[in-house]
Design a protein that fits this description.
Chains A, B: This is Magnesium transporter MgtE. Two copies of one chain form a homodimer. The first copy, chain A, has 455 residues and is mainly α. Chain A contains 23 helices and six strands. In chain A, strands 1-2-3 form a three-stranded mixed beta sheet. A three-stranded mixed beta sheet of chain A has the order 4-5-6. The longest helix of chain A is centred in the last third of the chain and has 34 residues. Chains A and B meet through α12, α13, α15, α16 and α17 of A and α12, α13, α15, α16 and α17 of B.
C-alpha cells in the first residue's frame, strides 16, 4: 500500500512537470522508473499530456515503455495514431520485433505499409517477414534481438561482443553460437561464460546439444519445453537449422496465461478475456452459444413431449426430471474437465484415448451406483414407493455413466479430428446429457409404468 | 520426433553402461545431458539400476537433477528412502533450498529430523526456518541461493564476487546490494554490470528503487508482479527489509500453472490435478460434490412435487422444465466464469463488486429477453399456443436473469468473506439455478393455468 502511495506522489509530480514544462526534471524522474511504472503513468495521462510526452522523450524511450505495456492493451492503436508518422515509425523499429509485430498486426494493411515505408529498409524487411508467421507459432512470439557469436574465438572476445550488444538484445543470458551460414551449432550461458577462464575457446566451453524450437511449432508445446527445462529463453530455427530468433520466458508466461484463459473460457462457454464490456456487447458474445444450446435443449423438450401421455398418467415422474438431468450434467462436467486436462498434459496420446474414456465410464458406474442407491433410499422413504425409487436410482446410474462417456469421449474425438477439445464446453455437455438422461429416464419408467400410475 | 529417438538411443547406451559397470563412460554421457533429460532417464530406471546410479554420481550431481524433477513427482519419497541416510542428507543440502523444502515437507516429522541431524548445522538451520513458512507464500517458494554484495566496491570487484558464487547461486542475473545489517538497499542486473565501466562504484550504478516482496505475500500476487514487470527473479524481505531469499521465474511458472488448474478445477467441481487414478479412487474424490449437489437437487424435486397437481392438470408444463433449467444454468455458468476471472485479475476490487453484479444482471436481461422471445416464437408455432409460449418465454427470461445474478453475486460474496470464490463451482451454480428456475417457472405458470389446462 505504501509503495502504491509513493508511486502516486511521483505521478503527481510528473504531471506537474509536464504541465509546467520542466523537461529536465520530467526526464530524470521518468527515466528512473521501471518501464512498467512508466507505462502505468503514461496510461493515466490525457491526450494533451501524452503529446507533450512525445516531445520530451525519444522514440526509443517511448518504445522501451511500449514493449512492456503492449500486451492486451486496447488503446495502443490510438496512441500510435496521435504520434507524428515518422516518430511512430521510429518507435516501432526501436521496439523488440515480437512486440512491434503484435502491435502492427492489430492495424489494417494500409497503415502497416505506411509505417514500414518510413523505417530503414533492414528493419522494415525484418518486420515484414515476421508479420507473415502464423498466430500461436514460435514465429509469432519470437524476437530477433538475440546475441550470436562464432565458435572460433576466446571467452574474452565473446565477452567483448556481448558488451556491445547488451544494450539492445532482449536477453544476454544465453549466447548462441552459429557457423558461417548462420546454422545454430551451440549455446553458452552467460553464467558459463563468466565461470570459464578468459583464454578458453568458445568451441571448447559451449554446449553442442542445443534445445531449439522450429519456427512453426505451436506455442503451447514451446511453453511445455520451458516448463520442463526451466529455460529463460529458447532459440528458434527454420527447418534447415538457421537461427531466426529467440522466445523469452516473459512471452511464455503470456502464452500460459492465454492458454489457461482459453481452457477456462471453453469450459464455461464464454470468452472470459473480454470483461470490460457493456451488457449489450457481452450479451451479443454469449447469445450464439445460448441459442445453439437452446435448440439442442428443444430436442430434449420434444423427447419429453413424446412421453407426455406417460407424464399425464404419472405426474410424479415430472418431479425427478431436473434431479436426474442435473446430477448427470454435473458428473459429465467433471469428466469433461478431466479429459480436457489430460489432453493438455498430452503425454502419450495414443494410449490415453481408450484409457481415459474407459476410466471415466468405470468412474461413472461407481459414482452412478452410489448416487443411484442414495436417491433410491430417499425416494423409497419420501414417496413410500420403492419401485419408483428403483426407477429413479436406476435412471440416475445409467444417466451418469452415459454423461461420463460423453464428457470424456467427445473432447477426445474432437482432439483426434484436429479440433480444439475445449469447443466441447461444459454447457454443451450438460445440455447434451439432458437429452440422454431424459431418454434413459422415460425408457426405464415406461417399463415400470403399471407400478406408479396415478401416484 | 528425431530428437526423442536420439535421446532413446542415449538412454539405451546409459543403461548398458550401468549394467556392465562402465562408470567412466556413464558419467561422461550422463553429465553431458541437460538435468531435465537426466531426470527423464533416472525415472525410467529400476530400483536396482538406481542404486548403481547413487554409487556413480555424487550427492551434488543427483541433487542438481532432483532440483528439476521434484515438482509434482509422487515417487520422490521412495527415491529418498532407497539412498543411504548420509547420502540423502548431503543431497538435500546440495539442492536449492526451495526444492529441498518442498521435498522435506512431504515427509513425516521424524524423518525430516533424521535428515536434518545429518547435515551441517548451518544448512539444517536454514532448512528448519524455511519449513515453517506457510504454504503459498513467498517464503514457501523462495530460495536462499542469491548473490548479494555491498555497495562500497567497484564493478570489477563485484564481478569477482559473482564469479565465485556463479556455481552455486540459483540466479546470477540480478545482484542484490545490502548494507552491514543485510538490509536490501539496491539491485543491479548482470546486464548493467557488464555494460558499466569496471572502475565505476556499485553505489553509483545500482538502482535504489528495488521492487521486492514480503516473505508472507501470497504467491498469486507475486506472480502478478512478475507478469507486470517481466522480471526473472524478485528479492524476498522480512518486515524490516532484511533480504531473506529470491523467488525465480521458473517457480512462478509453476505457481501460474497451479492457480490455473485450481480455477479450472473449481469451475468443473473436480480436482483435475489428480488424473492418474483408478476409477474407485476417482469416484471417491468426486462423490462428495455429487452427493452434496444431489441434496440441493432434492430441494428442486420437492418444489416440483409441491406443484404436482399443476403438472397432472397440464402435463405440457413438464415438457419445458429441463429446457428452462438447462438454459438458465448455461447462462449462470457464463456469469460465474466472468466473475471469477474478474476477481483473479483483481484490480480495484471495491468498485468492481457492484459493477460486475449489475453488469451481469443487465447482460442477463438482454440475453434472457432474446432467448425468451426465441422460445416464445417456437412454442407458439409448435404447440399452437401463444399463451403457453408467453409463459415459457417469460419464465426463461426471469430464470436467466436470476441465474446471472447468482452466478456473479455468489463468487463475489465468497471472495469478500475471505473464501476462495472458486468454491462456487459451475455445478453448484447450475444446481442452484435449477431451483430458482423451477420456482420462477411454476409461479408464472400458475398465473396462467386456465389457458392450458388439459393441453
Amino acid at each position: 500500500m505504501d509503495e502504491t502511495q509513493e508511486l502516486e506522489t511521483v505521478f503527481e509530480q510528473l504531471k506537474k512537470d509536464l504541465d509546467e514544462g520542466n523537461l529536465q526534471e520530467f526526464r530524470e524522474t521518468f527515466l528512473d522508473m521501471h518501464t512498467y511504472e512508466q507505462g502505468q503513468f503514461y496510461q493515466s495521462l490525457t491526450e494533451a499530456q501524452r503529446l507533450i510526452v512525445y516531445s520530451y522523450l525519444s522514440p526509443k524511450e517511448v518504445g522501451d515503455m511500449f514493449d512492456v505495456i503492449e500486451e492486451d492493451n486496447e488503446y495502443m492503436k490510438d496512441y500510435l495514431s496521435e504520434m507524428r508518422l515518422s516518430y511512430a515509425a521510429e518507435m516501432l523499429s526501436e521496439m523488440f520485433t515480437d512486440n512491434a509485430v503484435d502491435l502492427l498486426s492489430t492495424l489494417d494493411k494500409r497503415e502497416v505499409a505506411k509505417y514500414l515505408s518510413l523505417m530503414n529498409a533492414e528493419d522494415a524487411a525484418e518486420l515484414r517477414v515476421m508479420l507473415h508467421y502464423e498466430d500461436d507459432t514460435a514465429g509469432s512470439i519470437m524476437a530477433t534481438e538475440y546475441v550470436s557469436i562464432v565458435a572460433n574465438q576466446t571467452v574474452r572476445s565473446a565477452m567483448y561482443v556481448l558488451k556491445q550488444e547488451a544494450k539492445t538484445a532482449e536477453t544476454i543470458y544465453y549466447i548462441y553460437v552459429v557457423d558461417q551460414e548462420n546454422h545454430l551449432v551451440g549455446v553458452i550461458s552467460l553464467r558459463d561464460l563468466i565461470i570459464n577462464d578468459d583464454d578458453m575457446m568458445i568451441a571448447d566451453v559451449m554446449s553442442e546439444r542445443v534445445i531449439s524450437v522450429h519456427v512453426g511449432d505451436d506455442q503451447e508445446d514451446i511453453a511445455q519445453t520451458f516448463r520442463d527445462y526451466d529455460f529463460l529463453a529458447l532459440p528458434v530455427t527454420d527447418y534447415e537449422d538457421h537461427l531466426l530468433g529467440i522466445v523469452t520466458v516473459d512471452d511464455i508466461i503470456d502464452v500460459i496465461d492465454e492458454e489457461a484463459a482459453s481452457d477456462y473460457s471453453g469450459l464455461a462457454g464464454v470468452n472470459v478475456e473480454e470483461i470490460s464490456e457493456n451488457p449489450i456487447k457481452a450479451a451479443g458474445k454469449r447469445l450464439p452459444w445460448l441459442i445453439t444450446l437452446l435448440f439442442l435443449g428443444m430436442a430434449t423438450a420434444s423427447l419429453i413431449s413424446h412421453y407426455e401421455v406417460l407424464v399425464s398418467e404419472a405426474s410424479i415422474l415430472a418431479v425427478f426430471i431436473s434431479l436426474i438431468t442435473g446430477t448427470a450434467g454435473n458428473a459429465g462436467t467433471q469428466s469433461l474437465a478431466v479429459a480436457v486436462r489430460r489432453l493438455a498434459m498430452n503425454d502419450d496420446k495414443e494410449n490415453s484415448f481408450f484409457a481415459t474414456v474407459i476410466g471415466e465410464v468405470l468412474t461413472g458406474i461407481v459414482t452412478g451406483a452410489i448416487t443411484g442407491l442414495t436417491i433410491f433410499a430417499i425416494v423409497a422413504v419420501w414417496k413410500g414407493n420403492p419401485i419408483l425409487g428403483f426407477v429413479i436410482g436406476m435412471a440416475m446410474m445409467c444417466a451418469i455413466t452415459v454423461a461420463n462417456l460423453a464428457g470424456s469421449l467427445i473432447p477426445m474425438l474432437m482432439d483426434k479430428l484436429g479440433f480444439d477439445p475445449a469447443v466441447a464446453s461444459g454447457p454443451f455437455i450438460t445440455t447434451l446429457s439432458d437429452l440422454t438422461s431424459v431418454l434413459i429416464y422415460f425408457n426405464i419408467a415406461s417399463l415400470f409404468m403399471s407400478y406408479f400410475i396415478g401416484s
